[in-house]
Design the sequence.
């Protein structure tokens, strides 16, 4: 509490007791949020830390014993007495939803330890599954479904209603990305609230009433905003499924790496789920980070996992023909020749698409060993941003490149086109450019172009020697988002083709040219990059996932 | 103690009694003028002293509720008064009589209420189906405004007041106050989370008081008599339950209707003195105040040996002899509710009544909270199986468990409103329920039941003649079909677009054939061409892609109704009505709501209806409804004449005889009989 305690009286501690365990809370916290912050889970479906409170699933009911001396609020319930062969009235305490009930100092909460709570949760669990088709074997949510998890924890009973379930629409297409199954839906309204509150596009709502309730899209509309895949992500059950992920993988075969989204300069923290057996990425989903993306990601980012496979530069090339990496490096050495003697003739293009390590390696090779002064930066062209997460700048590391070249800011690639005559050699990172490919082709005609890139792009196509770098998914890497936040991304996949980490390729090239570019390990690069300091990595990023 | 009073219903029997003239003659609008000149605190003190307990069911003291409003009002946070006239509780029909026959009391109450809570606008949220009520309210507002009682300077005093009538969309849940506020704002009618309570953030996020319509209509009277004097009219003044109120009684009584009396009346007096006693047999049970109140059986006695207990004075007596008050009834384990009792005779089948009730709650649950959404449907499903003779004992034992799990675990009181009557029926009619469940699993002994329910009974014909479909399931289907999702006026009107969803594509008559085409459109299929099997094996079951429940054709229905009205019950073929999969027909009157609705056109109201035929009306919209009402009336009157013979009015009934006024009305020949 911000209010000052009166002098002389100790301020009551801001803690509540859940099942006897002390849990600190912040002003305005509900019970479930305070518990969640401490990693204590109170089961819930409809509550989400980033959304408003709906309190409609009734799974998080807890018992609040009344303060000493006050009577508890009791409700009449009916019990069957098999001896007397008659019903008798008994009572139960009124339970409160933990997602709605605010914390007050010293409050006592019974969650797991109350029989009434256990009964109520078991009942809710049974009721939720009453009309559920229980089609787990063909459901994409299986393995990460709350209905499954909580059934194990709270119910473990067979279905007691033997009759046919209520049938509702199935496989309804909500838009280009989402499919809805009303029978699996528990009408927790997370998706509705997400669209209203976060995406600011209130396109979903509930229709019908009672147990015929279902989610529906506004007439004349589709679920087609920038955040449609998030509705699938917030769905605690298998009601909303992503067309992209549907029927492609079973989640228990997937492994997960903590990565940084490559879609734009916001640098959303993400999980990349991949199948280690086939070395294939399957989806991106948000990793909670309240300083960057909170709990959300946009569709562009969630689908950007495909860049780990699509449009990749997988083999080295010399001229137009393929070559091994070693051959390509020796070809590059021959091409560049005595490049150190004419640094003023060398243009170095850094890439906002590549990691800080790759850029640092090229920057160091060019500046320290070749003495090059003129740097350029390129990346994907600007796109349309929005006010939620998506930035116009579609490159994950623009801020990193700018930071690297502090004091000598790199110029835009457009400038290179204007002063192309001043150079005869181009050392470049990354394939994508924001300028017109034709103009670039004319400007670089006849020049000695060596490109290290993870993806095929106009630059790599123009290269005399092109070297295949690992994508962000295939190596540990560091990116700096538009707010200057340095974040690291973990390796998920094994490198495809002959892809090698970019900094390694550049180091090899430097050594081939006769320089002491001695880094061979990532830790060495990072150590050199930060001047001996351990790299500051993405910071606090592991808040518990709701 | 029965004390008939005549404050609210004085002009009920008078020609044009709902107009401004008669109202002002009896001192109308003087209290509003006086209130606007009072200090707010004085008004609140009077209202607290009046001990008006909310008439909508919860029984919260009105004066206390007014006092919850933040004071003084902030200019950026205007206060609102919202009047709940969404009278949807089965068996309850008191508010509509006030709206139809004494609408100026509502308007005057609104003026006083607005002043009392610091509001300048009052919204009266009227149930959609009450067309005459809306018309009369609109008329009253128009008259009051023309006289300068509403507007910028009511009575020339500087306290602007406006009163608006807002129409609901026919959802029971919108009678819950926060749900009503959502509906008023144009959102989906779902209860809100509390806190914040409406007094903090209600209509449009502003401080709001929600009062029942009868409550607000009582306010001018309380002010006129003085708070304390008004409260002392009641027998339960000492329990802070004051004044007079309207009592309704329907079901198997001889003279169903709405009666005004002082609080403190006993249920026995309501049923036997006002209701004229039980018709067709002996008293089986009474649902005291709207269907959400647990049923009381006459053989129950009060057990309150503790001298401090609120019920101690009635210790050992029958529950029928306990005065009907908010606290006394709560102590009895039931609720006073809306004070409109539904009477069941021992010729009625409590199991079918129970089933009917649960079907209602299943249909009206908004579906927001899991326990109520799924629980009410499960209760209904089990009872459907019980009634069909398919249930097993194991399922019977599940009923109370489901009800227990709904109890207290939902956002609003609808959950309790479902669970409590269910518990009441389960506890008090276990044997009857068991009778439907044969241990051998053979279903019901039809012959025994046929003996138990003689097929031809006057009341059966009454129900049929009055309201057409006597099979509540059919009624239910029609209800569902005609108002597919009336609970959601909401942000989107998506239910109008059948082609929007998978499985509900635009129909193609060439491919689908006429039956399927019509079914998809929830439209009507002529009986001769209908290919869809009649009757849904399980009302909870909705077929994939089909979308709609089976629907009857209007003409076919009207024809059937006419035929049923003409034919004695016993002579009807099984296809006429109420055919059920088990091959057993359901006795017509036993369905609770249909019986109640058949009878709920209480005497005074019926008189008003008959009078209004052909008369000048306030607004032209109501004319069609009036005419259809007149036709309906003819049927009712005819049937009543047969049913009741030439029965005398009960002692103590209001003086002007219904027959006279009926004769005055320009009725066509009695074809209904």
Sequence:
């Amino acid at each position: 509490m911000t209010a000052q305690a009166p002098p002389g009286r100790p301020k009551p501690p801001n803690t509540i007791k859940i099942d006897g365990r002390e849990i600190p809370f912040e002003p305005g916290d509900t019970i479930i949020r305070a518990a969640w912050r401490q990693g204590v889970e109170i089961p819930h479906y409809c509550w989400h830390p980033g959304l408003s409170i709906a309190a409609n699933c009734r799974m998080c009911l807890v018992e609040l014993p009344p303060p000493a001396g006050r009577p508890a609020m009791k409700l009449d319930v009916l019990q069957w007495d098999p001896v007397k062969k008659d019903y008798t009235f008994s009572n139960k305490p009124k339970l409160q939803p933990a997602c709605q009930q605010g914390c007050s100092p010293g409050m006592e909460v019974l969650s797991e330890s109350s029989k009434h709570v256990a009964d109520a949760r078991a009942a809710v669990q049974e009721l939720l599954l009453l009309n559920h088709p229980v089609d787990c074997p063909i459901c994409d949510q299986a393995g990460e479904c709350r209905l499954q998890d909580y059934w194990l924890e709270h119910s473990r009973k067979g279905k007691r209603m033997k009759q046919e379930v209520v049938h509702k629409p199935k496989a309804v297409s909500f838009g280009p990305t989402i499919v809805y199954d009303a029978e699996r839906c528990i009408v927790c309204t997370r998706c509705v609230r997400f669209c209203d509150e976060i995406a600011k596009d209130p396109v979903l709502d509930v229709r019908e009433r009672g147990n015929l309730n279902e989610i529906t899209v506004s007439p004349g509309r589709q679920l087609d905003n920038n955040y449609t895949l998030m509705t699938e992500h917030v769905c605690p059950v298998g009601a909303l499924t992503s067309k992209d992920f549907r029927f492609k993988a079973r989640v228990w075969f997937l492994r997960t790496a903590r990565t940084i989204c490559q879609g734009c300069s916001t640098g959303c923290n993400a999980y990349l789920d991949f199948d280690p057996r086939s070395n294939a990425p399957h989806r991106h989903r948000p990793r909670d980070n309240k300083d960057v993306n909170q709990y959300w990601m946009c569709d562009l980012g969630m689908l950007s996992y495909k860049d780990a496979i699509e449009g990749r530069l997988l083999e080295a090339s010399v001229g137009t023909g393929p070559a091994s990496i070693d051959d390509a490096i020796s070809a590059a050495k021959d091409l560049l020749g005595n490049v150190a003697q004419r640094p003023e003739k060398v243009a170095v293009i850094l890439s906002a698409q590549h990691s800080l390590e790759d850029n640092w390696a090229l920057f160091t090779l060019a500046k320290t060993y070749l003495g090059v002064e003129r740097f350029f930066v390129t990346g994907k062209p600007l796109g349309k941003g929005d006010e939620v997460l998506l930035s116009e700048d579609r490159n994950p590391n623009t801020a990193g490149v700018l930071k690297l070249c502090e004091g000598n800011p790199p110029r835009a690639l457009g400038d290179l086109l204007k002063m192309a005559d001043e150079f005869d050699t181009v050392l470049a990172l990354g394939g994508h450019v924001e300028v017109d490919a034709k103009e670039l082709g004319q400007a670089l005609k006849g020049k000695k172009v060596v490109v290290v890139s993870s993806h095929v792009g106009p630059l790599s196509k123009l290269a005399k020697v092109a070297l295949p770098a690992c994508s962000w998914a295939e190596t540990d890497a560091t990116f700096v988002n538009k707010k200057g936040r340095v974040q690291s991304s973990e390796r998920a996949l094994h490198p495809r083709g002959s892809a090698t980490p970019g900094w390694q390729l550049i180091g090899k090239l430097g050594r081939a040219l006769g320089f002491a570019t001695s880094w061979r390990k990532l830790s060495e690069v990072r150590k050199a990059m930060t001047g001996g300091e351990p790299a500051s990595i993405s910071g606090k990023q592991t808040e518990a996932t709701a | 103690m029965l004390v008939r009073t005549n404050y609210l219903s004085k002009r009920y029997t008078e020609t044009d009694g709902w107009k401004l003239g008669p109202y002002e003659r009896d001192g109308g609008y003087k209290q509003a003028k006086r209130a606007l000149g009072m200090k707010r605190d004085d008004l609140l003190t009077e209202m607290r002293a009046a001990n008006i307990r909310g008439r909508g069911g919860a029984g919260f003291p009105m004066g206390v509720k007014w006092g919850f409003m933040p004071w003084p009002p902030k200019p950026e946070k205007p206060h609102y008064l919202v009047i709940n006239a969404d009278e949807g509780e089965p068996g309850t029909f008191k508010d509509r009589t006030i709206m139809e026959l004494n609408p100026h009391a509502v308007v005057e109450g609104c003026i006083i209420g607005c002043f009392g809570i610091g509001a300048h606008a009052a919204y009266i949220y009227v149930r959609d189906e009450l067309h005459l009520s809306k018309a009369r309210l609109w008329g009253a507002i128009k008259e009051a405004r023309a006289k300068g009682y509403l507007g910028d300077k009511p009575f020339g005093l500087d306290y602007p007041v406006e009163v608006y009538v807002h129409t609901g969309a026919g959802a029971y849940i919108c009678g819950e106050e926060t749900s009503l506020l959502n509906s008023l704002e144009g959102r989906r009618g779902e209860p809100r989370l509390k806190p914040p309570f409406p007094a903090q953030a209600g209509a449009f996020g502003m401080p709001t008081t929600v009062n029942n319509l009868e409550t607000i209509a009582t306010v001018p009277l309380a002010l006129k008599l003085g708070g304390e004097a008004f409260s002392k009219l009641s027998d339960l003044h000492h329990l802070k339950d004051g004044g007079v109120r309207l009592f309704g009684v329907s079901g198997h009584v001889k003279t169903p209707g709405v009666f005004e009396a002082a609080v403190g009346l006993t249920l026995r007096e309501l049923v036997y003195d006002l209701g004229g006693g039980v018709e067709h047999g002996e008293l089986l049970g009474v649902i005291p105040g709207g269907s959400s109140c647990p049923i009381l059986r006459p053989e129950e006695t009060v057990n309150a040996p503790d001298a401090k207990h609120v019920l101690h004075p009635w210790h050992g007596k029958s529950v029928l002899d306990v005065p009907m008050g908010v606290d006394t009834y709560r102590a009895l384990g039931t609720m006073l509710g809306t004070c409109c009792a539904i009477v069941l005779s021992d010729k009625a089948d409590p199991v079918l009544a129970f089933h009917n009730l649960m079907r209602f709650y299943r249909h009206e649950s908004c579906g927001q909270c899991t326990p109520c959404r799924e629980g009410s449907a499960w209760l209904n499903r089990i009872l459907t199986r019980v009634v069909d003779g398919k249930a097993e004992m194991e399922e019977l034992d599940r009923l109370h468990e489901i009800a227990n799990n709904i109890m207290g675990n939902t956002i609003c009181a609808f959950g309790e409103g479902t669970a409590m009557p269910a518990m009441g029926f389960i506890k008090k009619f276990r044997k009857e329920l068991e009778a439907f469940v044969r241990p051998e699993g053979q279903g019901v002994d039809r012959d025994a039941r046929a003996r138990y329910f003689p097929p031809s009974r006057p009341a059966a014909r009454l129900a049929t003649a009055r309201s057409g479909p006597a099979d509540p399931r059919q009624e239910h289907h029609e209800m569902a079909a005609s108002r597919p999702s009336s609970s959601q006026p909401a942000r989107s009107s998506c239910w109008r677009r059948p082609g929007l969803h998978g499985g509900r594509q635009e129909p193609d008559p060439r491919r689908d054939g006429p039956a399927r085409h019509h079914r998809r459109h929830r439209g009507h299929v002529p009986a001769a061409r209908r290919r869809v099997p009649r009757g849904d094996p399980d009302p909870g079951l909705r077929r994939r892609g089909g979308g709609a429940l089976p629907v009857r054709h209007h003409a076919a229905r009207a024809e059937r109704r006419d035929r049923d009205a003409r034919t004695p019950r016993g002579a009807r073929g099984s296809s006429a009505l109420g055919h059920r999969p088990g091959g057993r027909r359901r006795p017509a009157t036993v369905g609770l709501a249909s019986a109640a609705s058949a009878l709920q056109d209480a005497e005074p109201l019926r008189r008003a209806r008959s009078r209004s035929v052909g008369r000048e009306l306030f607004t032209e919209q109501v004319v069609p409804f009036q005419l259809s009402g007149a036709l309906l009336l003819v049927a009712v009157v005819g049937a009543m004449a047969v049913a009741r013979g030439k029965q005398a009015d009960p002692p103590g009934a209001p003086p002007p005889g219904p027959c006279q006024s009926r004769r005055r009305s320009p009725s066509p020949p009695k074809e209904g009989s």
About this structure: Chain B has a mean pLDDT of 76.
